[in-house]
Amino acid sequence: MNGRRIQGFLLAGGTQSVVRGICNSTRNPVEGSILVAPSLEASLYDAIVVARAVVCGAGGLTGHMQSLCRGRGIPVLRVDQADLDRLVGEVTLDLESESVLLGSESGIEALVMGSGNPSPDDLGSACAVIADVQDIETINSSGPEAKRVESFFIREEFLCLAAGLRPLDALHGGPADIAAYGQAVADRLCAWVEALLPDQRLVLRLLDLRSDHAAGVTETAPVAVEPNPELGLHGARWLLESAAYRDALHAMLGSLRRRLGDEARRVHLSVPFLNDEEEYTKLRAHLELPDDVPLSVFIETPAAVHATPAICAAGASELFVGIKDLVQFYLAADRTNHLVAGSYQTRHPAVLDGVRRVVESARAAGTPVRVFSLGADLAHYLEQLPTPDGYMMCTAELQQVVLQARLRPALATSDQML
């Protein structure tokens, strides 16, 4: 049996403990397949979102595409690169043992649903991390508890992947191309606003396309080759240098106002990868945002942690604590590198101290603050951290918490009958 089992490491769980499917080693989308790839990258987006599961040969727990899979409930298992060639035909992923069974194996596909996990009440004003409108519909169809999800957070680069847009190519073109890009983003956002419940909103994290990711989704625009893209020209640094993006953003905001009227206020903007209040002030001025357009900030570097009081004072409308990046910068452990996975610790005392500082500073300033959490960390954060205004979670994990609330009365009745 050992010759038929490949041991791996689970990077993202799903809603089932056992997943079976036919291996797909091409880069083409095959509905319901087990996608097999050396690594996960943005150019595989179409193949990933239709896959039942993913097996890869490299990557960490919280890479961008791993996070996309976690949000969709698509399990990701990392195995040794040398074992990828053995993954052909039908295979079975045993998520509990973090392994792949070769050939047709029987298994029970069961929903993993514990009754002792955190409840929706613990989430505060919850925020769901999404990749497409399907995720909004998934949450809002979960029953009455869905109303506890106050907002939906989307990265602009994920929006582009879902819509087949190539942002750098568009922004490298003329005024018509730039305006068309802004219009295309607005088209997507308008459709998503229609899927919201009355008191919900969208939070758009402005374009944060690292050069290594951009290279896979760019055809005509020049893309810099950087020795360390994670610490390179992206986020607020790139936004400050791009007049074309400013123009595209104004085209998007104008389209939203024309088409949605007052409902356009349900779309909020957030700045990625920002270090301090000086960058915030410069960026707001550079983007030429009207005074009535709120601009929130992602706190995901140690510098931003220490600058939190000043960032709030500079006018940030809201703070989002990006745990995944914060961990790698606090601990100098690449979140996509499985060789340092043991050093990448989402519960490290230094990281939690940083998060605590942000929450306490934001609450003192009266600025709303939300903390991202992996599903496995939520109970620990609830115990160790001061209470933020709400928690952010990927769609599939957040849905688990919402569904548990619906199932808990039935489980209690069942226990009483035993």
Automatic annotation (TrEMBL):
Residues 198-371 form the PEP-utilising enzyme C-terminal domain. It comes from the Bacteria. PANTHER family: PHOSPHOENOLPYRUVATE-PROTEIN PHOSPHOTRANSFERASE (PTHR46244:SF3). InterPro entries: PEP-util_enz_mobile_dom, PEP-utilizing_PTS_enzyme, PEP_util_C, Phosphohistidine_dom_sf, Pyrv/PenolPyrv_kinase-like_dom, Pyrv_kinase-like_dom_sf. Its cofactor is Mg(2+). Pfam families: PEP-utilizers (PF00391), PEP-utilizers_C (PF02896). Belongs to the PEP-utilizing enzyme family. It comes from Actinacidiphila acididurans. Residues 31-83 form the PEP-utilising enzyme mobile domain. This is PEP-utilizing protein. Keywords: Kinase, Magnesium, Metal-binding, Transferase. Gene3D superfamilies: Phosphoenolpyruvate-binding domains (3.20.20.60), Phosphohistidine domain (3.50.30.10). Transmembrane segments: none annotated.
